[in-house]
Amino acid sequence: MQLGNFPTRKFAFPDTWESFVERFRSGQQPLPQAWADLFGPLCTGTVDDLVVVGQVGQSLDGRVATATGHSKYINCPAGIDHLHRLRALVDIVVVGVGTALADNPQLTVRQVAGPQPARAVIDPRGRLGANAKLFADDGVRRLFITADGSRATPPPGVEAITLPAEDGNIAPSAIVASLAAAGMRRILIEGGADTVSRFIAARCLDRLHVNVAPVMLGAGGPGIDLPPLERADQAHRMPVRVHKIEDDVLFDCDLSGQRVAIGVAKRST
Question: Which of 36, 72, 86, 155 could bridge 40 with an S-S bond, Cβ 3.0-4.6 Å?
Fold first, then answer.
């Protein structure tokens, strides 16, 4: 386990981050060291051509929301900046329909410098309305991932991807493969916790960023919820690096050792 200090806006000049984004996305080496320890592993896949990263922001007692569903904001402002930096480095940001309905996120880069990623929602039954912010026509690609046979029609300009579903759920591997076919090489599974958990269980993540805030909520939605194991020694023990982000602690978990091979992006955004 490696413990590192994560740059924040208090002592990292904006042009340092801008330089990192430019070099990262163009594949130039070496990367500026201030950001390379945490974000460098997202540059190139080790299993196939893809890099799939999940992120969860949670309390110290493992909750992503209170018992009433309130979640803004568990993590500190620097933790929100970190999430926006992740968005700036990937080709597409993906959320489940539950998060889209509950939070109506924009999924844009606003807190930091960087290009806007494409956006996608996993919505097997077509529950999300056309006025959702992630469908806003702002010049980036928007994708609607739904189940075969769904009668939902995406808003104009939004690309539809239809995939087989079982018990109302679309397999994470099928989602990643379809996004790779659409040209997406770096994929951020941003939430919610149930969607991220399903991608972990399906062994479809290369990295997992768990940002833990020093608060306890007592009850509420769990951060990561996986199928139970009979014995503790059956659990996968992964390499991890730990970074301090102001008051929060970020666990950068390397899941590439258990990630299934999925495919190669046809083209990059």
Answer: 36
